[in-house]
Amino acid sequence: MNKLLIVDDESQIVDILSYACKREGFAVETAFSGLEALRKLEEWGSQILILDLMLPDMNGFEVCRKIRNPDSLGIIMLTAKNDILDKLVGLELGADDYITKPFDLRELIARVHSLLRRMRKKT
Q1: pTM higher than 0.90
Q2: Which residues make Cβ contacts (< 8 Å) with residue 5, sequence separation at least 6?
C-alpha cells in the first residue's frame, strides 16, 4: 500500500484530502506543522508528501530543506502562494509538483498517481 503524508494547518483541507486519498487506497498520515511532518516522515516513512507552504512553525520550504532522503520521497506542494518565485523556489528545493489553492481534488489525485508512476520507473 502506498503511503502518503498530508501536511497542512487547515483541518478542513486535511480532512478532505485524507478522505479522498484513503478512498484511492493510500495509507494516509496527517500533520499540521512542519516539525510534526518531519517527525512523522522519520517515524512512519512515506512515498508521497503533500505539503502546504504556510505552516505555523516553519514554512514548507524549510521542511523541504530538512528532509533526510529527498530522492525516495515525491513532494507535491499544495499552497495558496501562487507567485512564480514561490513556485520556482519550491521546485528548486525538491518539489516534484506545485498546485495552488483553490484546487480540484480530482486533479490532485491524478497528479499523485502520476508522480507514483514516475517514481516507480526510477527504481
Answers
A1: yes
A2: 28, 29, 30, 31, 37, 40, 41, 44, 46, 48, 49, 50
